[in-house]
Amino acid sequence: MFKQERDADNLKREILDKLARGVFHPITREEVVRVVLTADDVAANAKSAARKISASSPKDLPDEIKKGLRHLADMDLKIAELMREAFVKLLEDPKAAILITHEVEKMEEEIDEHRVTLVERILKYGDSVKSIAGWLMLKEAVENLENIADRSEDVADVIRGIAILG
Predict the structure, then answer these.
(1) Does 2-165 carry CATH code 1.20.58.220?
(2) How far is Cα of residue 117 from the mean position of the Cα atoms in its chain?
(3) What is the per-residue DSSP string for the chain?
(4) Within 13 A of 164's CA, how many CA atoms are on the CB side?
(5) Interval 101-127: pLDDT, tens
(6) Domain boundaries of the chain, sorted by first residue
């Protein structure tokens, strides 16, 4: 996770450097910068969630919370893959990119619903924890995982706008 976030930072810098040297219409440049920076937020939230989960003594968690975290992480991976696919399709087939952004939006709503249930379980688990700090880290990790979906949807919204206006 940490290496992938570092790779994403390097890619972000490379894209921004190339944008600074290239000839783009100002609106297009602004949109690309927004996509790149928001996609970087996806990677940053993934890294933060991984650190917080590691710090929360995951071995001691009830199975239903472990399964819930795993499912949330799997959904985050899928939404990030959809976001990337929409970005790639933007150049080849803007209409297909728009359809993929709709999938991203639906996935974000599913993630929101799952997060609510998971947070309820984590709050109940909080009544029996020995370490409040670990419990808080776990709850904050879930928020980071949800932010992955939110930022992915933000990127999809920009892609949709570029596809429609472009």
Answers:
(1) yes
(2) 19
(3) -HHHHHHHHHHHHHHHHHHHHS---HHHHHHHHHHHHHHHHHHHHHHHHHHHHHHT-GGGS-HHHHHHHHHHHHHHHHHHHHHHHHHHHHHH-HHHHHHHHHHHHHHHHHHHHHHHHHHHHHHHHGGG-S-HHHHHHHHHHHHHHHHHHHHHHHHHHHHHHHHHH-
(4) 9
(5) 999 999 999 999 999 999 999 999 999
(6) 2-165
